[in-house]
Amino acid sequence: MTEKLAILHPEIALFITTCVVMIVGLSRSVGARRASAWITAAGTLTALGLALRSPEGFGLLPGMLAYAKAMIAGVGFLLLLVMAGAVDRGYEARLLRGETFDPIRATRGEFYAFFLFSLMGVMLCAGADDLIWLFLALELVSLPTYIMVAISSSRLRAQEAAVKYFFLGAMGAATFLYGFALLYGAAGTTSLSGIATTFAASGIGPLAYAGLILSILGVCFKIAAVPMHFYTADVYEGAATPVSAYLAFAPKTAGFLALMLIVSTVGWHDGGLPEPVRVTLWVIAALTMTVGNVLATLQTSVKRILAYSSVAHSGYMLVGLIAGPGDGGVFQNGLAAILFYLLCYGVMNVGAFAALTCIERGQNPDDPNDLETLDDLKGLCATRPLVGWAMVLSVLSLLGMPVLLGFFAKLLLFSSGIAAGEIVLVVVLGLNSAIAAFYYLRIISSAMFETPDARRDGGRLTPMRGRVLACVVSGAAVLVLPLLFGPLQRASSRAVSTGQSAAIGERPGGTQAASPEAGR
Amino acid sequence: MLLATLLIPVVAALAVAAAPADQARRIAGAGSLAFFGATLILGAMFDWSRSAEFQMASWFALSAGEGGVTVGLAVDGVSTMLILLTGLLAPLCVFGSFTAVSDRPRTFFAWLIALQAPMAGVFMARDIITFYFCFEFTLIPMFVLIALFGSSNRRAASVKFFLYTFTGSMMTLAGLVYIVWFNATRLAPDGAGAGAWTFAIDTLMRASRSMSGSEQAWVLLAMMAGFAVKTPLFPVHTWLPLAHTEAPTAGSVVLAGVLLKLGTYGLYRFVLPFVPEAVVAWAPLIGVICVIGILYAGLICWVQRDVKKLVAYSSVSHLGFCVLGLFALNAVGSAGSVLYMINHGLSTGALFFCIGMIYERYHTRSMQELGGLAARMPVWAFFMVFFTLSSVGLPGLNGFIGEIMCLMGAFQSGATWGVGGTSGPLGPWFGGVAATGMIVSAIYLLYMVGKVVFGPLKEPHGHGGAHGHGHGHAKDAGAHGALPVDLSKREIAVLTPLAALCLVLGLYPVIALRPLEAPVAANLAAVEAVRSVVAPAEALAGVEAEGAGR
């Protein structure tokens, strides 16, 4: 029991913080309410520290805990910097002007609490070894985000986005719940490693395939992959920008962790995934990249561009899922590539979204407009060099420009795809990166080359310096982290290698070949 | 030494960006001269008697262990020459754009200097990560230079430039990663790099030669996707005229002078030695593409009325010769091709300078509006005619020797020819048809010179009035001091070194050709080995077919 608890230390830290924040956030004192952000930050950092010391878990990918949870907490902290202080800004300002405090109307503490709940859900996904646990974890990721979208902004379209997000999310959840039920029916157990053992021993029947494919389709909602991508642009656009940034990272990470676990039950045996699963994922991957990129080229709102680009990035990462762990070498390991890509994507994505929140426009200082369209970005590098350049670097990295972080992430997907023999898919990935260059270049052109419209209000730097900090830190990380490519890549590779040895160990006859590799 | 050479432009670019705007020119000039000096020292330190070997090798591990990032640098004779060309053009570009750029000089000069580092890096790279980094990283400075400092249609041109080359090089990356994977997993460990994940070019070169024929063909296709776009070959050349026309003068010079050579250098360094079997099999097709490109682009040039566009299309035509020589797969063709890279950099770069000087004075490049400028600007006319003749391939100037060697290589490349012991997959037809491209090239270039330099004087309205200064735009004149009617001392100083080199290389090409012999032969060794295996096999197949027929 205590061993299992040790695995959950980061989650426990987050949960305690959640309880504290929820109460403190309702305090009458302004100082206490303000402190809730600091408490949240402290909780996240504590979770980060505990995550780094996570012991090996159990189940199919037991080595993943430390890497995945540390990544979640680390990027989560960056996201918190962007989000801090955004909620209730207008209300707090009115309170300062003398309005009486009404706890019903104060949502700041709740917002942080939901943020922490959601983060906790992502972490729980990493350690799941049971369908029910996995389902609850996935829902714990998403349910708070519906509310976060709704309360992120006082505008009507945030609520519209939340409703849309909620209904489609419920549909996604229903789909993978159905899939999970079928899996249980096929294997007779809810334990993922138990399912893997059953599949290895008695083969995979049609019922199991139906369950797998429905589960994959349902989780596609979390990662915003085709055919469950329809909500993405509308929700990202409707939600306040910091929450959009969160949506692009947290549910996606949870979805990929879940997918890795679900697909691990059938395993990447000699010839790769079983054909029905491989074809399903292949089609989803190819469609997701292409649809995401093509639709992104048609947008004028940067938030919508980034939304569709987030769809496309999910498609890229699916290549790693199809490739699987290979024989464990760092360049062949598709699962390690996904973990590494998630980290990189988290950082670059925060950079790009945070830059949008750094400049505020509009008459009402309490409810300002973020940068939103390509026109808004015009001349950003000249007027706000720090923010502008951080944005340009992040976007170049999203594009996969060599020297920057995104290139290395993509390189690993390339090599793992090639190692698994998925040459066509890798070519599709290459072509899509090129399509993506088109819209990323539009963002860069706007920021670097255009001169700002004289008629437009030039905007002011946000009073919330956390956003600028997050933006600059991400921009710098995109430049500096490539120097740590080797260690990071080995860490991500270690994270999945033990699980892979366990998975291979269960398959008859594969043990000898795999064991020496697993030690690395 | 190599790393220092690469770091100079980076440091200079940062210095330019940090310095006050009015100092930008001076710092950029000093930085580019320092870079040129470094390349000269590099050329002096290089042991030219062993020019086939990679010298001054240095490996840096940015992060150790498997999957760590390493930077491997070394140069052989071919790379050193191309680095020298890069180094020479750098200060010329900077000094050549002193008056052309008045808006945001810091941005301009910083990116222009920064561009030099990745270009030199491509020539030095000994591992594909470094190579690919540098190859791709040239895109950003050039993109900025075109997008910010180009003429009217610059945004479209810069985006087209970026997208074309980026798309191609994604495919190249896939091909290169395939080789890395092949080396790591399909070969038995031999202690020399095979059987492990490595990006070292030497190891991968050995590995990729043991790929099957069809694998090689696919890798060839992937590599060609990137390098052919960069070169550019017909039919993926369409980005170049636009990019050239819209780019600022210095941008065009760097683009024509060095950036296009990255494509041909990639073909030389990667395609030929990496996938020899596929190269031998597909060279005729590539040869046909080159010949089409030579003639087609030549004919397009003929109908151009925009001087800069004409020279841009002539680049497409000329680089067709260069690639044709390369795929003749013999020593003459390869050496000619490398020489052509350098010659083209000198003469076309210089032509873009000349055109830029006219544009700065008259703000037009249209042949309809310009004519007989020899009367107004004799010094400029001299240089213009000189570089045009060099570009046409007049014997005695540098263009001639490279072109004739490429053609000779192609001509002798047929197995039936045999004279001189060279053999290859092309043949007299390729050489003969491509040679008509020389005639076309003479027609359009001389026609252009005839219109613009000679004939009755024609100037756009508002220029060349009674005051005797050919500069009508008072605003620009006020900014940097009026440009004289004819070339200023600075402009002459920019063109003279290029002209001198054209003359030296034209009269005494041996100084460049001798150091090329050994590296070119080493580079062709793999192809030769394949041919010597393939040729008897073909003969044998023929005998068998005969026997069966009986």
Number of domains of chain B: 2
| Mean pLDDT over the residues of chain B | 83
The ordered string of helix (H) and strand (E) elements of chain B is: HHEEHHHHHHHHHHHHHHHHHH
Unreliable spans of chain B are: 416-422, 465-480
The radius of gyration computed from the alpha-carbon positions of chain A, rounded to a whole number of angstroms, is 22 Å
Got a strand count of chain A? 2
Distance between the first and last residues' Cα of chain A:
29 Å
Poorly predicted runs of chain A are 499-520
The description of the largest β-sheet of chain B is: 2 strands, antiparallel
Radius of gyration of chain B: 24 Å
How many domains of chain A? The number is 1
Q: Tell me the total number of β-strands of chain B.
A: 2
Order of helices and strands of chain A: HHHHHHHHHHHHHHHEHHHHEHHH
Total number of helical segments of chain A? 22
Helix content of chain B: over 70%
How many helices of chain B in DSSP terms?
Answer: 20
Structural class of chain A: mainly alpha
Label the overall shape of chain B: globular
Strand neighbour order, sheet with most strands of chain B: 1-2
Mean pLDDT of chain A: 85
Task: Write a concise keyword list for the protein shown above.
heterodimer, A: 520 residues, mainly alpha, two-stranded antiparallel sheet, 2 strands, 73% helix, B: 550 residues, 2 domains, 20 helices, 71% helix, 2% strand
What features would you describe in this structure?
The complex is a heterodimer of chains A (520) and B (550). Chain A is mainly α and 520 residues long. Chain A has one domain. Helix content of chain A is 73%, strand content 1%. Chain A has helices at 2-7, 9-24, 30-52, 64-83, 89-96, 108-126, 131-151, 156-187, 192-202, 206-223, 231-238, 241-264, 275-297, 302-323, 334-358, 380-383, 385-399, 405-419, 423-448, 465-480, 485-506, 511-518; strands at 359-360, 460-461. In chain A, strands 1-2 form a two-stranded antiparallel ribbon. In chain A, α11 (231-238) packs antiparallel against α12 and α12 (241-264) packs antiparallel against α15. The longest helix of chain A is centred in the first third of the chain and has 32 residues, at 156-187. The two termini of chain A are 29 Å apart. Chain B has 550 residues and is mainly α. Chain B has two domains: 1-137, no CATH class; 138-462 and 484-549, no CATH class. Chain B has 20 helices and two strands. In chain B, strands 1-2 form a two-stranded antiparallel sheet. In chain B, α16 (398-412) runs parallel beside α19. The longest helix of chain B has 40 residues, at 510-549. Chain B is globular, with a radius of gyration of 24 Å. Residues 416-422 and 465-480 of chain B have low confidence and may be disordered. The interface between A and B is large, with 37 and 37 residues.
